[in-house]
# Entry
Amino acid sequence: MPSRTKKFRGYRTHGRGKKSGRGAGIIGGHGQAGLGKTGKIGMLKYDRDHFGRHGFKRPQCMVEANRTINVGELGEQMERFVSMGFATKEGDGYKVDLTEAGIDKLLGNGCIDVAVTVTVAEASEKARAKIEAAGGSVAE
# Structure
C-alpha cells in the first residue's frame, strides 16, 4: 500500500489531530507511564508494591560465603592434603584438619572408603553418616 504522506503535505497534523501523531499520545504513554495519575487504580489493584523500596539487602562487606568440600572430594584429594600438611596418615586412616585448610563446612555428596578423622567447623548430617560408615569420625 503506498504511503499517504504526499497527500497530507501542507497539513500540520497529517489528519491525526493534535496529539495522536506524537509518539504514544493517543494511548497515554508507553510502559509504566501514568501510574501516578490515570493508571493509579490499576496499579493499586495489581501492583501495590510498585513504588518505594522493599526488603533489606545486607552490605556485601558483611556477607561471607562458606567454603565447602564434599565427602567425595575429600577422599579424592587426601594425598594432596597430606602433602600440604593439613592431614596425617595414621595406620589405615587419616587425620585431617579442614579448619586449618580454610574449609568451613563438610558436605555429604559423593562416597568415601577410607577411615578419616575430620576436624571442621560444620558438617552436614549426611556427611557425618558417610564418614562414620567408613570407620571415621567428625570433630567440631
